[in-house]
């Protein structure tokens, strides 16, 4: 820094930089500056939209900004593989998604291990769901299962990605219902829903959030949550219909290994506080999310439970050997 | 009358001021290579939370419009397309700048952008729901054929040998498969490197393949970067208007193509400007002057890529499916503001919709004065800055711009590597455009093909899946025409002046 | 397609014109070879493209052999050392940036590139002027990206 200063760089700039270096992260006045929130995905997805909603409340609580950055690539692998290189002062946090962080590193080297992702808070999930167009002949899940039994492989599902939440859900569904379907992976849930709306596929593996966003054009046959979603009281859960499926895409946040515990706790508290705001809760529900609260203290148990679930299903279903 | 009152609402002094600020900062951000419209919009979103929804939307639309237009500056003045949709602008824009007509090229790009932008916004306002249905009728197979059609443009774009063009495009297509595959989930061609897991980022490839070779050649000789003609200064508006008037059909055709193709999520912008460029070239009498600085080439691509702004919002607003990454950011902001896409768009949400469209309209109109002003300044600073400062400045922008795309030093290294490869290949007659075309169209072609393959297996007939739809057949016909048109045209020309010592361009299409 | 066809014009030397298709055939070969342990869905596209590249390369070779090549005698000459230096500086810049930080490497490269691109003699006044402009430009871009656009530029692992 000395050299650049001596050359005559604008003094104010240098000063603000120097102060950035010297600020030792103290949990009491954390956060003392804006926090970088890195999305391992591109803009417009569900991770992005929930971050945008959190932004507002984060600023209300802390007086600092939550700055959303995008680092897309490899279905999240690019971002997560760089998490360990990020500063450990708590001013850089990264979005963390289940089952991605468990399924991605399974069986192949994607530059990070599940354990490298140091999660401090998980705040919501969007339950898996089977969506069809409004004019689809399948009125119930049974209609669809019957069609799939009559012509194995002829019922097509769109979904987002290979070895993804949708892919796992489809494989699991095939087993539980004892049917064969054709799962067609797309580049993202946007492309997958386009395929459904355009009539390219019969059904889509999606989430309640997609149904909420396109509720004038699609309906759900079943939801993989424990209880019916308040926005869709008429849509049965898989469990009600006799299929033991509960799952979806969980979202939370992580910091690099080595971030002080107090800072992590502080971050966890802030996001828990956001989660408890009734206005935020309403906004999230309107978008089809289901809020959950997994603060730092409960993270280890939550993660190891999820690990067991996904590892078991991935192994059993042949996604890994 | 709703439309009018909301459009008038957008005209309040505060909103006008925000639009002005948005367009101006958008132009500057867009003009810097690597700084994309996506980033400009994403940075602005939290700022807009403090504003009324109307002001927020106007500002977002304005910065987006400005940024797409601003991309033409770097394309014209330093041969670097800031976004994939500005690739074709380099074809004629940079040669024009090299020979001293950079000011004219910037003026033309401004005029074309205004016309294109207005056509796009008009389509958004009037026929959005209808066009959204068209977007839905494009399934994987149609996307596959569209990508193939895009690739056939190589025969029109490659100067020199068509075979070289195909080799270059093949190279680009192979590069596009690097990383984790969307379909199949394989990790491909990373050669054990984590840097390549996420694949090659298109904008960093653009900067590498187009801008680094320019830099490398810039330091090799003491000659100035662009030819400077002392007599011609100013914005040359009259001359620009004359060219625009001559090319009025070209402008309208390109803007229509731009709007039409932009409604396809994911494929839009880059294909739109390439298609309108090759159409303009095909329609022109002096088609051989395209690629050597023909003003009509600049008009065609710039009209098309600014039409994609309005066009891209059609699937975004009507279907909730963002057409381009900046659309995705804006859609996110709309959702946060409580906006829902769908049929309420023109009923319950009409006030937000019309304000937004009104804002886009105003922003597009503001492009004219602001664009001419900032463009003139950009041109003047590029020609007056000495080489010893120009080279490090451009180099600085390429590095920081590439880094900023996803905050990754790896992308900078990939960008430099591609730049060196690009320079070597260029020297041996392999142009960057086919390579980039392959890189952009590769994922579309591959996913469309594999998805179509899976659909064919499910339905029992591959032939019906791939050749059954009317849209597929139309695109196939267009592709065949696009491949053989140069041959037919060359034959016709050959017959006209038989035995004439023809230039070596004849062998191009043989 | 008889002898009336003129010889093909090479972009550079005649020999390089023959070597380039071989290079592309080689690239196609590598991609083909590497696709062996991929899944069917993952391999089908790159294999197809690799084959197309190889065929295009072979056709080009045949075309060159049949019709003959003319070396391009008018290709531009320029200072190769300066070109090489530019590439070296920019590569070093990218490699050192995560360690030494953005500002320092940015300034150092700016000054080096300035030297490489300068053809006229340096006068003290010109040098000072250029240096000053350079610093202002670097500061401007730094402010634009780091402060206005919130890009987390590398601070440098050596100091932080």
From TrEMBL, chain A:
Domain of life, per UniProt, equals Bacteria
For whether the record's keyword set contains Kinase, the answer is: no
The cross-references to InterPro entries, in alphabetical order and at most eight, read: BUG (IPR005064), Bug_dom1 (IPR042100)
Q: Does the keyword Transcription apply?
A: no
Residues crossing the lipid bilayer are none
Q: What is any Pfam family matched here?
A: TctC
Q: Which residues form the signal peptide?
A: 1-20
Q: Which UniProt keywords apply?
A: Signal
Please give the family membership noted in the entry: Belongs to the UPF0065 (bug) family.
Protein name (database record) = Tricarboxylate transport protein TctC
Recorded source organism is Halomonas citrativorans
TrEMBL record, chain B:
Its signal peptide is none
Q: Which residues form the DUF112 domain?
A: 16-437
Checking InterPro entries in the record gives:
DUF112_TM (IPR002823)
The domain of life for this entry's organism is Bacteria
Keywords in alphabetical order:
Membrane, Transmembrane, Transmembrane helix
Q: In the UniProt record, does the keyword Membrane occur?
A: yes
Q: Does the keyword Transmembrane helix apply?
A: yes
Membrane-traversing stretches: 104-131, 143-160, 166-183, 195-216, 352-375, 387-406, 412-428, 435-454, 466-488
Q: What Pfam family does this protein match (any one)?
A: TctA
User: What's the protein here called?
Assistant: Tricarboxylate transport membrane protein TctA
Annotated source species: Halomonas citrativorans
The major lineage groups are:
Bacteria, Pseudomonadati, Pseudomonadota, Gammaproteobacteria, Oceanospirillales
TrEMBL record, chain C:
- Transmembrane stretches, start-end: 18-35, 41-62, 83-116, 128-149
Is-annotated flag, keyword Transmembrane helix? yes
Q: Which residues form a coiled coil?
A: none
Note the InterPro entries from the entry.
Answer: DUF1468
Database matches in Pfam families: TctB
- Specify the DUF1468 domain's residue ranges: 19-154
Keyword list, A-Z: Membrane, Transmembrane, Transmembrane helix
Whether Metal-binding counts among this entry's keywords is no
Report what the protein is called: Tricarboxylate transport protein TctB
